[in-house]
Amino acid sequence: MRIIGDSVRLLYMELLGQKIEFPDDYYQGEYIREIAKRLFDEFGDTLQNESPEGLFKHRAETENFDDIKKTCARLGIHFDVFYNENTLYETGNVSEVIEELRDRGFAYDGDGAVWFRASAFGGEKDKVIVKSTGEPTYRLPDIAYHREKFKRGFELIVDIFGADHLASYPDVLAGLKALGYDTDRIKVLIHQFVTLLQDGVVVKMSTRRATFVTLDDLIDEVGPDAVRFFFLMRSIGSHLNFDLSLAKKQSEENPVYYLQYAHARIASILRFAGEAAREFGYDLGDLTELRLTSDTLAPLREQEEFALIKLLLEFPEVVESCALSFEPHLLSDYLNDVATAFHKFYHMHRVVTQDEKLTLARLTLCLATRTVLANGFRILGISAPERM
Question: Which residues, in sequence order, are bridge partners of residue 196?
């Protein structure tokens, strides 16, 4: 945050006509320039002596965080609470953790730094939690933050980390054990990295050099449904290649299009079923009143019908399995199987036939399939289109 604040300050000074030396590791994106420009428009040249960690950092943090919240909202993601890491320092929680670890014999000084005795909890070696410069390493505020979570009374804590945290999170758990907390109440999920492909070529990105594709760009390009589904359709332990060209395709090659098309196809069948049935000389009545009963489904005899019914019956078990394993991709895999089974049934058997009872049975099966697909889509956070 110090660097991003100073990046804004330097670009502000450039707007004042000063020649600046811009370090390679500073943030150079257009979004940083826009923040500097807004500060210039608002304050003119009155911020020349402002600290990088004052208004420059504050404005960068506020505006970027507002953008993050807006982007999340576009994907239907809303957080009840945001916890600012800086709060841990302002309230003295970080200092309390160091002292408590010292009191328990699990923190000590060495080479000008403060060390955590990670070796006492199975670690290969002890780890620095405060550098000789006085700056904390990532482990220390993470330990303090989890301590606060326990104090807030949560029975289950789910941590979602990127693969770059693989080496550090065991030290955080060890730190919590050292403080006397039950780490069995923490579930750690490690996500592999995401690679964006454009026409089969990897898109190279660098946050500081501002060569990147934002999540907003991705949503603008392919829509929120495709973005959500592509992230959810792979196990968290699998590397995700987000194929931009595939996500834009309006064909069955696109996995989210394939699922939504099944739902839209069923909606189309139901819309025109009544009219088609009247051509055969009978009235289906209100199709929304159809109920899954043994009598209604008795005329179903085909292998494709039974295969689809068996799949639909698995839905509650699949949802439970997703919840217990923290693996939503199991649901997307299942919905793909349902869509495939339905498309096969549809291509091999007419839904509306001259046989009224058989038609009602197949329409009931279509309704049940639509219900399962729509419920699955709602859990995954994607739309259930009636027309495509």
Answer: 242
Q: For each successive 10 residues of the chain (388 residues), what is the average pLDDT?
A: 93 93 85 94 94 94 94 94 90 95 96 95 93 93 95 93 87 96 95 85 70 85 94 88 88 93 95 88 80 85 96 98 95 97 96 93 95 97 95
Q: Alpha helix (H) ranges present in the chain?
A: 2-15, 30-43, 57-74, 86-90, 93-103, 139-151, 169-178, 215-222, 224-232, 244-248, 255-279, 294-297, 303-313, 315-325, 329-348, 356-380
Count how many domains the chain has.
4
Token pair for residue 51?
A: 């600290």
The residue to which tokens 């109440």 are assigned: 185
For residue 302, what are its two tokens? Answer: 């085909």
Token pair 């999340």 is found at 72
In this prediction the pTM is 0.85
User: What sign does the dihedral 180-83-128-185 (CA atoms) show?
Assistant: positive
Residue 386 lies in a domain: no
Assess if residue 341 is contained within a domain. Answer: yes
**Structural domain harbouring 96:** 86-191
